Amino acid sequence: MSALALSDAATIAAAVSSGRSSAREAVAGALDRIARIDGRVGSFTDVLAQRALARADALDGALGRGEPAGSLAGVPFAVKNLIDIAGLPTRAGSKINRDRPPAERDGALVRRLEAAGAILVGALNMGEYAYDFTGENVHDGDAHNPHALAHMTGGSSGGSGAALAAGLVPLTLGSDTNGSIRVPAAFCGCFGLKPTYGRLSRAGSFPFVGSLDHLGPMARSVTDLALAYDAMLGPDPDDPVATSRPPEPAMPNLESGIGGLRIAVAGGYFARGGDPEAFAAVARVADALGASRTVELPEAGRARAAAYLITAAEGATLHLDRLRARPRDFDPAVRDRLIAGAMIPAPFVERAQRFRRWYRAAVLALFDTVDVILAPATPCRAPRGGLTHFILDGVTLPVRANIGVFTQPISFIGLPVVATPVWLDAGLPLGVQVIAAPWREDLALRVSRHLERTGVCAAPVAELA
After folding, report:
1. How many CB atoms lie within 10 A of CB 458?
2. What is d(CA 347, CA 306) in angstroms, rounded to the nearest whole number?
3. Residue 4 counted as domain residue
4. Counting CB atoms within 10 angstroms of each CB, which of 247, 250, 325, 433 has the fewest?
């Protein structure tokens, strides 16, 4: 096995750029590990060996001619299968989308990563149409948590989290509507960035809820997150909500530490409704950061309810034609929620949108006095696969609907978040959300890097043969 196979993206890029290794060696090592291990993990739906090796050889040739290397030179990466890959139908975890024509070109973020020298090796498993928090898929098979194969990865970017935890690639892309990057990052023990709404282009991806959808990177190190984030920045005329606001690149200040930052813990809603371990993880992070202040996000429970309404209604509208024409080709759990969403009265949705505007203003006011807010990412560790109900705070609840209890009130108003993995013991990891004000991804990444550097948060590769 190549020495680079389990390395992080920054290490691979440095080795390839300096000529100490080649892009082909890095890609071949990833492909070999995928072939040996992913049959048990189920993270990939498509492996693009021929394309990846051809791209690696082209990059090695360019470097041999003295052409400049990108910041991600030779780094193998993979993307959730709702992002376009030229020559493949964009399935979005569904059976129905397999009948779509192949994409004519790669999605915008794939192109930007490859422009920085990264090399796409495949597409990743996900929950059907991204309406999922478990990582289970009735069409492609379930993704399995590499740290405990009988347990969930979380979703809907389950394959993205699993591929990292299994050491198959050092960098993946996911999407996050209500928590679909942060939940698998927490369950699989890796880092995930949900950027500000509109920060990164969504062009060339299959939508779920247009007013809530984000794309973002996942990785086993904060440095890799920042490298990928910086490579993908910039406006895109193909995405009408992609901002032209000048970005705050993360890398220049990533190692600056937390001096001068005002950090608080989310209380109230975010301090109940979960297992004790979820709050213990937040306490450990808060203690390491010296964060003793507590703030309360007003009406966070109502924000979650409003997010549910908007998600169901917008998602149903997108899928009405498919629901009418091919209802039996949906995962029944997804189909039934979409049908229910189609029956929500329009005044209810309008009321939820009005509340959303109020809630956004109220939460943004908190950032006049704090820079970063900490909150649990999930209410528990990864449940066993196939589990339909769990007990939280003494109440029996459906698993699929309630894993995102702490992520939904944040993505509802588009705040940037880094999900950081915390290991309290030898069991499965938990996650903590590091939340910043809009457009300040750099602060959330800076705090997360401090936690990683001091050993509070870590993303080890699972012990798989």
Report:
1. 17
2. 12
3. no
4. 325
Neighbours of 20 (CB within 10 A): 11
pTM: 0.97
Express the helix, strand and coil content of the chain in percent, nearest 5 each.
Answer: 40, 15, 45
Phi, psi of 133 (to 5 degrees): -120, 5
Burial of 34 (0-12, 13-18, 19+ CB in 10 A): buried
pLDDT digits (tens, 9 = 90+) for 421-448: 999 999 999 999 999 999 999 999 999 9
Residue 139's CATH number: 3.90.1300.10
Report the domain count for the chain.
1
SS3 446: helix
Cα gap 211→202, rounded to integer Å: 12
Catalytic annotation, residues: 80, 156, 180
Please list the alpha-helical segments (H only) found in 298-345.
300-325, 332-342
Residue 462: inside a domain, yes or no? no
Q: 3-class DSSP state for residue 395?
A: strand
pLDDT at 1 over 60: no
Q: What percent of the chain has pLDDT over 70?
A: 99
d(CA 421, CA 429): 6
pLDDT for 240: 87
For residues 418 and 377, what is the distance between their CA atoms, to the nearest angstrom? 10
Helix (H) or strand (E) holding 420: strand 417-422
Integer Cα distance of 71 and 226 in angstroms? 11
In the three-class reduction of DSSP (H, G, I as helix; E, B as strand; rest coil), residue 351 is classed as helix
Give buried/exposed letters for 317-352 (b at 16+ CB in 10 A, else e): ebbeebbeeeeeebbebbbebbbebeebeeeebeeb
- Asked if residues 198 and 227 have their Cβ atoms less than 8 Å apart, the reply is no
Q: Which residues contact residue 69 at a Cβ distance below 8 angstroms, ignoring those fewer than 6 apart?
A: 13, 16, 17, 63, 117
CB neighbours of 395 closer than 8 A, spacing ≥ 6? none
State the greatest distance between any 2 C-alpha atoms of the chain, in Å, as a whole number: 65
| Domain membership flag for residue 1 | no
Query: Residue 63 burial by CB count (10 A; 0-12/13-18/19+): exposed, middle or buried?
Result: buried
- The domain in which residue 357 lies consists of 9-453
